Amino acid sequence: MREIHKFGSIEEVIELPNLTDIQIKSYNTFLQLGRAPAERENIGLQSAFREVFPIDETERGRQTGLVLDFLEYTLHPPEFSPEECREKDLTYQAGLFAKLQLVHKDTGLIKEDQVFLGDLPLMTEDGSFVINGADRVIVSQIHRSPGAYFTGAPKGTGRTYMASIIPMPKRGPWIELEFDNADVLWMKVNKKKFPFTLLLRVLGFGDAEIRGLFSGNETLIEATFEEDAAMGATVEEALLRLFTVLRPGDPPKVDKAISYLYSLLADPRRYDLGEAGRYKMNSKLGLTYQQSTLMGFEEGRFVDYGLVPTIQYLVKLQAGETEMTSPAGETVAVEEDDIDHLGNRRIRTVGELVADQIRVGLGRMARGVRERMLLGNPDAATPQKLVNNRPIVAALREFFGRSQLSQFKDQVNPLSELRHKRRISALGPGGLTRERAGFDVRDVHRTHYGRICPIETPEGANIGLITSLASYSRVNPLGFIEAPYRRVENGRVTSDVQYMTAHEEDRYVIAQANTPLTDDNRFAEESVLTRRLGDPYYVPPEAVEFMDVSPKQIVSVPTSLIPFLEHDDANRALMGSNMQSQAVPLIKPDAPYVGTGVEERVSRDSGTVVIAQEAGTVTFVDASRIVIENDRQVAREYVLTRFQRSNQNTNLDQRPLVDVGDRVEAGQIIADGPASQNGRLALGQNVLIAIMPFDGYNFEDAIVLSERLVRSDAYTSVHIEKYEKEARDTKLGPEKITRDIPGLSEAALRDLDEDGVVRIGAEVKQGDILVGHTSFKGETEPTPEERLLRSIFGEKAREVKDTSLRVPPGDGGIVLRTVRFRRGDPGVELKPGVQEMVRVYVAQKRRLIEGDKLANRHGNKGVVAKILPPEDMPYLPDGTPVDLVFNPLGVPSRMNLGQILETHLGLAAFKNGVSYVTPVFDSAREEEIKDLLEAVTERELAEEREAGFVPDRREQQVMRRAAKLGIIGRDLSYEEARLALARTGKSVLYDGQTGEAIDAPIVVGVMYVMKLYHMVEDKMHARSTGPYSLITQQPLGGKAQFGGQRLGEMECWALQAHGAAHTLQEMLTIKSDDIDGRNASYEAIVKGNDVLEPTIPESFKVLVKELHSLGLDVQVMDGERPISIFDESGRGR
């Protein structure tokens, strides 16, 4: 194990939080399993039940005297483990039971029942779900927080303002207040418009009181009074007028109007601001209300819970005032809101999203309960009979199976899993759409600092809509993202860490994490660079209130894995962050020589490594399990995952890191997972590279590499493919999985066992049988003679055809394991009509080949263009050939110079036999790297002097040329020139093919290079004949359909422009939809004859028929003689 040396001067006051907490904590809070039912808080699942229950039938006026109430819920233990669920295509779930109580009001009779409400998917230890055998992740959603917002728009020379009151998604109507051109303040509810004074009258305000509310700004509301034309109206009259506006078709009655307005804005079941919305309104308007609605109904009248202060605030804003006194006597600032500020956007995590679905399901269930209460016999009713759980089951199935936020887990490597769980999406139900989202929503906002990564986001249509949590950020119970800061008291930085939301942070002056400090944690300089409201200021140390906890708190976890990030352009850093998640786990993982110190935490928190739960001594180790005996002599077994297939067909494999007799501590990593070496993330390989042109082979970012990397399996990865075959009951008879297949030689069946399933360990290639399978041929009706013969001589054996599962084109490998499921086996759920199913896993070892994509961590990506023998690669003066050659043109214009610094430091690490940690924004400085390289060269020179080494004339020539070019100083001795060259990070290099020195010194060093998931073996495809479309008779498209290459409109133009008439005719006829011509051509090629002239293509016949349908008689003429291109039935021949 290599020794690790750390650069960086900034001490970390707090460690990174658990990186999957956003998922695990949210779901645990939603379930509250660790609490006794009586102690559960009114949140998550408990809150969903409490909102829907009690269910009675008083709402519709008819009373049955029945009330169904909720007492508590329990979750039964899951029937199968996550591993069994993956194997059997099941969902990892627990039965949800609720204890319900039915009270008969008339008789006082109480009936209690434990009612099954459906199965609730459970989260696995690593923060994902297993749904129908596949791992899925619920992505957190970011949306505008509920609350009151004040926005402005230009109008003439000034601005006009508008207020919006937004409830929780689907929990009530949006309310909008805006001034029109005539300065009338309109209120809009459900697209219905009325003067705001009408609602104030309903709340019991008279004309004078309304004017009193806006004292000082009466002129702004006079136009509304005139429009209202309801001077002196009573509360009832105002209520009826309001009801007429909101429900124009209904007859106005006071009780109906009260009931409607109550359900619209005052019923907590129908209208809900949520805790976050109420908190936002209270803090914005200086209120102290606790209710989640905008209005209440007390003692026969409506009361206000925040509507009036909202209107007052809007009027003050329109009047240009900057302050307002709240009803509680607090002075609040009057200002326009920035809707992209993170204080105004909140995160809906997995717990809240699932709770919403359960709420929807319970709401539908409650409707069914009410109907059964009315229609059934009240005396015979029980909770079990009243409740139908189908709506809850359907809502959960819909959400986990089909929601935009429930995604197939990205399992290419441990980092991609972790990144998927920390992803934040603005899309999904109740969110934005790609088409509607403008530039402002997608852009980086100042409040993203320390909360959302400004780098990591997709490059396509989703840019800025899908983002990632910053390393240290967390989501608070209200859903707002918080960032941590160190408190500063009287110019001294304390270790007291405080988490703040974006709005709280706006109040303070904050210093950067890299601000120089003295030994007693005071600021080392008289003037400190700080920021307030996103703007930079120099202030004296006493004025600083907080300080960042770490330089990497700005960026996400994948971005914090990029060494020398501060030297890279943001666009390339984005590509580097995204491409690390596409790196394929290799069979020989190699942790980077130049890392950032986050590698170990990623491996640990991704859940792919095995961690000792308690201290003890290792008593047994083999490839599949580790046994550790604790200090109380109790043994604990850790079972390792071996050769499991991931969602993306990569290999999930764990390898022990401990030996028998080793002492382990609690929390120690005892087994490596995929892409991990000694517990550190290892996505690629440390490769000796040169940055130079190479015979044009590295044109346009292409890469030249040494065959040594292929021979040593440096970039070899294992990919596991899953194949399935079902045996069904069909109309013609049952299909069979069997070894007895007609018309096949023994050689074709040699790897099948007696049941017709391929044996484990068999090497299979394209076209080989994996599962022997026969199905009956469709029979024609027998003639009377045949029937007579059959009745005399008995039924003849019916003919079967071979429908075996074969290895598809381009695939193959070693059979890893086979699984057979039969209907009726415990825990097996097969599709209707399927009697049994066989699943075969085939492992394929993929070496690096031309066409594979490689990339480094700085966004420098390219395709392998040429693999050369090591002896043809450029080599160093000591004879070491380089492994990989990058093009120098890929660096300057892209401004990702971090890769050059990584290469130089990597060389020092390689020669010193150590690894370096260089944290982001606190990296090794240029001078430190130069000193390391100089020290290494001094050591080499001493060894060469001792060995009596004579300098090479060619090397000296290159050095003289370097001096002329100004790379090193002039008139230096050989040793001085070597040392000067080492400080530039360059080396003399020799051409492997000619043995001559390359004209100028070249940058040579060690870079960390990854093999990406885009492998040429998945994309390579060729077709001679294959399937044709039934309608057009043209070849299908795409590799999956074994399709051909389309010759489109523009390709035809190109051939026409070149006058390639015969090529064009061949392409459009015998290679496409000329049925007779293509059959005749195939036969001619097989027999070695000349290919005949093409006949008429099917598409021409379609054109003729199209013209016939227009009433045009089109005939095909040969000179004067018409030719028929259709048969008697009118179909194309």
Can you lay out the helices and strands and say which pair or pack?
Elements: E1 3-6, H1 21-31, H2 44-52, E2 55-56, E3 66-75, H3 82-88, E4 93-104, E5 109-121, E6 129-131, E7 134-138, E8 140-144, E9 147-155, E10 158-166, E11 175-179, E12 185-189, E13 192-195, H4 196-202, H5 207-213, H6 218-228, H7 235-246, H8 254-266, H9 274-285, E14 295-298, E15 301-304, H10 307-319, E16 323-325, E17 331-333, E18 345-348, H11 350-375, H12 383-386, H13 390-402, E19 406-408, H14 414-421, E20 423-425, H15 439-442, E21 466-468, E22 474-475, E23 481-489, E24 492-500, H16 502-505, E25 510-511, E26 528-532, E27 535-539, E28 546-548, H17 570-580, E29 594-595, H18 599-606, E30 610-611, E31 616-621, E32 625-629, E33 635-639, E34 644-645, E35 651-652, E36 655-656, E37 663-664, E38 669-672, E39 676-677, E40 680-681, E41 685-691, E42 703-706, H19 707-711, E43 717-730, E44 733-734, E45 736-737, E46 763-765, E47 769-771, E48 773-776, H20 784-793, E49 800-802, E50 805-806, E51 812-822, E52 834-846, E53 853-856, E54 861-868, E55 884-886, H21 898-912, E56 914-917, H22 926-946, H23 953-964, H24 974-983, ...
Parallel strand pairs: 1-56, 8-20, 25-28, 29-56, 41-55, 42-54
Antiparallel strand pairs: 2-3, 3-4, 4-5, 6-7, 7-19, 8-18, 9-10, 10-11, 11-12, 12-13, 14-15, 16-17, 20-21, 22-23, 23-24, 23-28, 25-26, 26-27, 30-38, 31-32, 31-37, 32-33, 34-35, 36-38, 39-40, 41-58, 42-55, 43-44, 43-52, 45-48, 46-51, 47-50, 48-49, 51-52, 53-54, 53-58, 57-58, 59-60
